[in-house]
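Hello forum,

I keep getting stuck at the same step: I have a sequence, I want structure tokens, and every attempt I make locally crashes halfway through. Rather than fight my setup again tonight, could one of you with a working pipeline run this one for me? It's a single chain of 287 residues.
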Amino acid sequence: MTITMTQPSPADLPQIIETVASWQHEGAPVQVHSGDLGWYERFGAAKLAAALRIWARDGDTVAVGFLDESDLIRMAIAPSAGDDPELAHHIVDDFITSLSGVLTPGTGVVEARFGPALQRVLADCGWTADDPWTPLRRDLKLPVPSSSLDVRTVGPELIEDRVMVETAAFTGSSFSVDRWHHMAGGYAYRTAECLLGHDSAGAAVAACTVWSAGRGRPGVIEPLGVHGDHRGRGYGVAMTLAAAEAMRRMGCSSATVATPSSNAAAVATYLAAGFVTQGEVTDFRRP
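Reply #2:
Ran it on my machine without issues. Output:
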């Protein structure tokens, strides 16, 4: 059987997003989610397609690589192929040949949180642990406590406020009204919502986007932020609770998120909102 790596076209995105969504399962490590692809589509469908690499065996997609940053590829692997050594060796060979311009020695990083075969091959080839991340999860079987914020789903009248909060929450944010429209017009956003939280005075103070992979599957928060002028008032926890409740309404089995372990405030916020973690994970840096 033949394994090939290709770059998709924009026309391929719906099928890729559906495939990645179908790979989300309870009890499995958090790997690249269809919502991660949906959030990136704020740059447009052509940019998202250019950032993806598809590994297929005889025409069936078995792994998806997402070039989320200039030196980082984030992997999603089919559950049935997670312990496939042939696939793992082929992927790593592509990392150090076809993708060497991105995953350069000393700086190239692979996020491979699922796929024991790929993890073993990377370790055997000398790839070392990168900075730690903390994945977190909240079960959605039971109701979520009410948020203290007035939370509204973003429609046309709230887009500018949604963008304003995002840019005030994250230094150097790339978000804009045009990019919101790119994202909202993308295939993954069909099962997503942007939420905007207002304080008692009516000011927009926090925002997030939540993404479903389909009923009975884990959803993801990507991203969530609090306006820099309104921090320290519990709005991060309140917004996280609203995000979890929105995903519960969508039929998600759990709410998931991952944050750098160095961002202690973010980890504390998610824990305070009832999320739990099984500990840190690390990515793989090319030697």
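The CA atoms of residues 224 and 256 lie 12 Å apart. If your local run keeps crashing, start a new thread with the error log.
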